[in-house]
Amino acid sequence: RSSWLLLAPLLTPPVPVITVPPCSLCPKGAHRFQWIRNLVPEFGISSSHVKVLSSPTEFYELLKVQIKTAKQRVVMASLYLGTGLLEQELVDCLEETLEKSLQAKGSSNLRVSILLDYTRGSRGRKNSRTMLIPLLQRFPEQVRVSLFHTPNLRGLLRLLIPERFNETIGLQHIKVYLFDDNVILSGANLSDLYFTNRQDRYVLLQDSPEIADFFTELVDAIGDVSLQLQQDDTVQMMEGMVHPYQGDKMAYCEIANRRVMEVINSARTRQELLHAKTFHSSQQGSSLLSQQGAQASRGLKPEPDTWIYPLIQMKPFGIQIDEMVTETLLTEAERDARIYLTTGYFNLTQAYMDLILGTRAEYRILLASPEVNGFFGAKGVAGAIPAAYVYIEHQFYSEVCYLHQQERVQLQEYSRAGWTFHAKGLWLYLAGSDLPCLTLIGSPNFGYRSVHRDLEAQVAIVTENKALQQQLHQEQEQLYLCSGVVSSSTFEQPNRYVKLWVKLVTPLIKNFF
């Protein structure tokens, strides 16, 4: 009980300030989403470079293969690295690859950068830090381990809140795994559950150097304002950098904002110049084609049919791009459009709930049943978290029924024996289309934490290619096949009983999980 009282100073949520993005939706297909490039860089690629994965095992095996074949860089951002045998195998793969790189050239070109959260990565005696220290000791010139510490956990609060509970204040939650020019976007952490029986989403972007450069620079920027793990398990900031919890909070957040926005804006400028150059070349190419016939087209690079937009959300630093884009997508979704939205932790912000209930599109929202919630069966207070999610779900469903929106807004619960559920994102089907032309995939859960507390990143993938649209559709169908539709009778089941104290406490603490 006392642990919750320690959070009292933070129970009053800040009032969010939303700036409406410049938005001029084009009338046709995928091109209607080009307004997003007013906010972030736009990366045009061929759909043949995109592969949608479906299982934790496939994800794990791909990580190992990509590590073993990396020549220039391995960049991995996650909440934490687990401490089991599967995680150790990943570390061993990194060690072998670094060793081979040294033996091949004497001095290695391979660089490994790992970004984790400080509080989650430091939990327990054996933790993410102890797993990675051997790499730091053996390859000090090639390996960097950065541990992000939220600036909101400081002073008396930091001293009083115990381990695990301190993770409620704010985390590094981005999950991106890149190897040379190949990038994996996911919501999965580097832990054995996510490699075996914890369902998530995973997309591989192959041979995409500009996207890999962007996420390398983004992880470097966050790493620069994070604590650096040392060979003796101590941590220290880079020289001249403001400390996240000992230094001035406003100064730290301003520096962090500047570093991250530099990455976003410089990439955006680069991509605009590249787009202008490509457009000019294609104009020349089409002129040449008309003069010399079809043979002239063979040397031209094919026009992209898929566009990648990185969406960053770091409210502690005043960066809220993902929130702005998500709200605009929900606002602009037309009548008869369908949005399939999924989250492992159903705790939508009030703004997202209002948009879902007040707009015209059809919604199919997939969430975890209590038995596949990651906190199911946990000890102590955490064991009541699935019941709190049931209570939040019931409240939302009651609002849907009150507004007579049951046909337009449908809840579905994922249920699968022996598995837990962690998938998040959305698929957007335009009116009259059987296939999605846009998906969001990455770390955000669409909840208060994702919007206000944690560091988050996802990508919007927009495609005109039918084969890729089919891949995304199959991914959505596969997840929703393991679900049942929520109705009033759902909440009458014995396992949906919510104790009175949980109902009373949930409104106070819902912003922390």
UniProtKB/TrEMBL annotation:
It comes from the Eukaryota. GO terms for biological process: cardiolipin biosynthetic process. It catalyses: a CDP-1,2-diacyl-sn-glycerol + sn-glycerol 3-phosphate = a 1,2-diacyl-sn-glycero-3-phospho-(1'-sn-glycero-3'-phosphate) + CMP + H(+). Keywords: ATP-binding, Lipid biosynthesis, Lipid metabolism, Mitochondrion, Nucleotide-binding, Phospholipid biosynthesis, Phospholipid metabolism, Repeat, Signal, Transferase. One of its GO terms (cellular component) is mitochondrion. It is an enzyme of class 2 (transferase). The keyword ATP-binding applies. Its EC number is 2.7.8.5. InterPro entries: PGS1 (IPR016270), PLipase_D/transphosphatidylase (IPR001736). It is found in: Mitochondrion. PANTHER family: CDP-DIACYLGLYCEROL--GLYCEROL-3-PHOSPHATE 3-PHOSPHATIDYLTRANSFERASE, MITOCHONDRIAL, CDP-DIACYLGLYCEROL--SERINE O-PHOSPHATIDYLTRANSFERASE. Functions in the biosynthesis of the anionic phospholipids phosphatidylglycerol and cardiolipin. This is CDP-diacylglycerol--glycerol-3-phosphate 3-phosphatidyltransferase. The lineage of its organism: Eukaryota, Metazoa, Chordata, Craniata, Vertebrata.
